Amino acid sequence: MSTTTVERPEQADQRSPGATRRIGPLRTLQHGLTLAGRSVLKIRKSPEGLLDVTLQPILFLAMFVYLLGGAIAGDTGEYLQRTLPGVMAMNMVFGSLGTGMQLNNDITKGVFDRFRSLPVARSAPLIGAVLGDVVRYVVSIAVLLVVATLMGFRIETNVVSAAAAIVLVIGFALCVCWISVMLGMLVKSQQALPGVAMSFMFPLTMGSNVFAPTETMPGWLQAWVSVNPVSKLADTARGLMIGGPVAGPLSATLVWMVTLVVVFFPLALGAYRRRV
Amino acid sequence: MTLAVQAEGLVKRFGTTKALDGVDLAAPAGSILGVLGPNGAGKTTSVRILATLLKPDAGNATVAGHDVLRDPVGVRGKIGLTGQYASVDEELTGTENLVLIGRLLEMSRSSAKARAKELLERFGLTDAGNRAIKTYSGGMRRRLDLAASLVGRPEVLYLDEPTTGLDPRSRNQVWDMVGALTSEGVTVLLTTQYLEEADQLADRISVIDHGRVVAEGRADELKRHSGSQTLQVRLSDPDDVTATETILRELTERSPTANHETGLLTTPAEDPVLMSALVRRLDEAGIVADELSLRLPSLDEAFLSITGKPAGGEDSTPESGEESTA
Q1: B276: distance to nearest CA of chain A, Å?
Q2: Does A275 touch chain B (CB under 8 A)?
Q3: What pLDDT does residue A164 have?
Q4: Fewest Cβ atoms closer than 10 Å to its Cβ: which of A202, B37, B216, B266?
């Protein structure tokens, strides 16, 4: 062992008070935005990464409208009007998978360790991933609306309430994505994530009133569909885009959004802290 | 002397396994500390604690004057980390990665870009700056990792097995770059399982095994630690072996190992004066030696004598180059 006497290392840096320095909310946001910029850069580099939130909903829409729409609603045009707001809602649930995928990838590839070795707010990578995905959602909704318009969809209310529907849908995405973040932290490998995520995504998306009226469903399914947050969100978006009741489904949707955040944000954050 | 890195009694458990069992490390500012040990010895765990990526279960550490537990943000402002785990984004280009890190360090867009350009130039990656990292070769990738850890001009740089898996040419490039860093006053903590690497680069070496530091000192001290020097005599005429054996026995008071066919004699030798005495006696006896040498044991031998097992643990280390001969 070295026998050299050393001065206390604290003296090496006069500026260091030795106390814990924290990174304030403003700098946290700044770091988060920088990392969101990274997500956007990646989208620009490989737009094919957006196929899951662009092509998939279009395929769903086309399939249901042209294949089943006539049979379900008697008329494909009418079915499209009814279904599009729901597909938008559904797409947010599927799209949230990307948040968990990216975070899991960053952790397993070691990119997170790089960020964590920098004086960067610990929650910044999380904020960056979630904010970056807002861009994905906006692109996804824009593409979906263009295609739907080409298919014959028309907003029957007005631009303002249609815009409100879009904002609400994205807001919902920001609440539901914490489930995905949590799963992304819990699963060991990225490959396992889609399979695990399907277990919550499928009941949420398909077990809803997005594609079919609920009257003919068995009682137990009706019970679930009538409380399903995606049904509520779809109802609200329908009301805002093609007309109908808004207040009721909107308040139910907001209650769900708060619930999702209250339950899954702490769980996701806990899983994140344990993992990183 | 100021210590840039000082760790005392670091303990870390993962479940029931004790990864670190009281590790002490000390690196004077501006020096290169080599942490040498086989796989699973606790090298990476130590670095992760010193880089604030992991909290120790016991013990404490100070890095560039900041306590890793009480002031992790202060530590992060002073360190750079290069290891297989602290990675860069493979889909982004070299420039984009470096600029991203610069921006996270709150540099302005233009100074982040200038710093990226400067580092790419320095690491010979200017031409590759606009290519995605996933197209890089292993050596380029490691150089970019090194560049990424230098964006913030760290005072302390951790290099966790910086040359593992690299071909000899890329390895030499990394070595040159590490050497250049200390001339700028950067303190380097380097982990390696290659004895040659520690010998080449490090000012001081801490040998770590089973989560404990089993030896510490300069490379030559460690070599000496493992035992005495070896005196080696190669005679031009093997017939002189018996006479030489007698002379050596008289001088060292122990029996040398002698080979009557090759005329090679070796004996442990503590006393440096022995050499001149031997030359005189051989001269008097009219014995001609082709080779007379006093050599320190290799670090491999040192490692073997310290840990009781060959360097590299279960994994063989073909790149250490010194083993399997002897």
Answers
A1: 33
A2: no
A3: 95
A4: A202
